[in-house]
Amino acid sequence: MNVSMSLSLDNTKVAFAYKSNAELKRANFLFSIIQNSFIVSLATKCTPFLMKSGLPINGLIRSTIFNQFVGGETLEESARVTKQLGSYGVQVILDYGVEAKEGEENFDNVTEKIIEAVEFAATQKNVPFVSVKLTGLASLELLEKLNEAPRIRSGIHDSEADDAAWDRVKERMFAICEVANEKGIGILLDAEETWIQDPIDRLAIELMAVFNKEKVVVYNTYQLYRHDRFHFLKISHKIAQEGKFLLGAKLVRGAYMEKERLRAQKNGYDSPIHLNKALADQDFNAAAAYCIEHRDSMALILASHNQESNMLIVDLMAKNNLSKNDAHVHFSQLYGMSDPITFNMATEGYNVSKYLPFGPIQDVIPYLMRRAEENSSVNGQTNRELLLIRKELARRKSKK
After folding, report:
1. In whole angstroms, what is the distance from residue 281 CA to residue 287 CA?
2. Distance, C-alpha 29 to centroid of its chain
3. Per-block mean pLDDT, blocks of 10 residues, the chain (400 long)
4. Which residues contact 123 (CB under 8 A, 6 or more apart)?
């Protein structure tokens, strides 16, 4: 058995070895600010407007939240971070962080950037995956229409324009996956809001049926704060078994909780989100255990900042005599967050990565605002980040 039961996720010396004192102090300041929900709410509303106004705030954003959560504006800038993480045994999931830009030209440009990221990943030892947001390749209006209209979902389209637009979206994804398959890189299809998720799920299955015959190239993302997703994971697995292909499953808790609940309340339908965090945790851990149980026919990416969930899978790997670097089990956390989990697991030899976005500052603002809101709304997470950062700063000061 090649699983260490001495794993500790609280070793701050290991967790922050790659950060200088100045970088740690900046992170401490940033997370302290993010704790204030009023400031975060104000910044979320004002920042996109200020960016468009032409006011010189790029430098402020770059030196704070951008540097904390983003690899750089270009692949070349991100290469430095990628190399630094690799020197500590940490892998990388590259993500071109441009989303929700409309127009066929924009969609084609994003496709080219993602293919460039796949080709770059193939030259790096520690970049096994590239993430794709379908909202960067398709119109939100089209996705919502596909989600709502059963006739469109079944392949009978309301108009030739919709038909042609969806065909172009599929062509973009197939082009990305063909390059990824050839280069040996995995493609992670991100989850979105419930009102546009159905066509993404269907496309993910379609792509897996083509590219996941012998190895897992395509992964779909399951947001387990939705009360229907554990069941959907099981359905996806059944479809994969019947279609004789491997299922790729990236598990997350979810990123749109408040938005989902408000929309459900406004439109008079039942919220798709679990009533409380305990139920979401229960489903998340059960889904992760299900993936380990069926790892002969599926691959798991456990994308979690939750210590308990990560240790649960570590324990299950030990009980099932799985190697720490089992090819079908991968752990991941966002760049800029949960370093104690990532770096301690990497030191022990687990497959663990940082989700590393890159892209022009003005284009990754939606991503940055979600990170700020996430840290503001999940106080336990931010408190833990601050506690461990301050613990490391104190440890370093005591060594002087």
Report:
1. 10
2. 25
3. 65 95 92 74 66 67 86 94 98 88 91 97 97 95 86 50 88 98 98 95 97 98 97 97 98 89 94 95 98 97 96 96 96 95 97 96 78 58 83 89
4. none
- Contact (Cβ atoms closer than 8 angstroms) between residue 15 and residue 390: no
- Bridge-based pairing state of the strands 129-132 and 91-96: parallel
Please, what is the angle between helix 21-34 and helix 365-377, to 10°? 70
The structure tokens 């991941």 sit at 332
Contact 94, 117 (CB under 8 A): yes
Q: Is 294 helix (H, G, I), strand (E, B) or coil?
A: coil
Angle, CA of 92, 250 and 99, to the nearest 5°: 70
DSSP secondary structure string for all residues of 150-177: HHHHTT--S-HHHHHHHHHHHHHHHHHH
Task: Identify the CA nearest to 350 among candidates 22, 23, 88, 57.
Answer: 88
Tokens of 206: 């379609």
Q: Residue 72: name the closest of 357, 313, 340, 279 by CA.
A: 357
Which tokens belong to 25? 């102090």
Q: Measure CA 69 to chain center.
A: 12
Among candidate residues 399, 400, 394, the one with its CA nearest the CA of residue 24: 394
One of 3.20.20.220, 3.10.50.40, 1.10.10.10, 3.40.50.1220 is the CATH number of 71-371, namely 3.20.20.220
Residue whose pair of structure tokens reads 């419930």 in the numeric block: 194
Residue with tokens 């336990």: 380
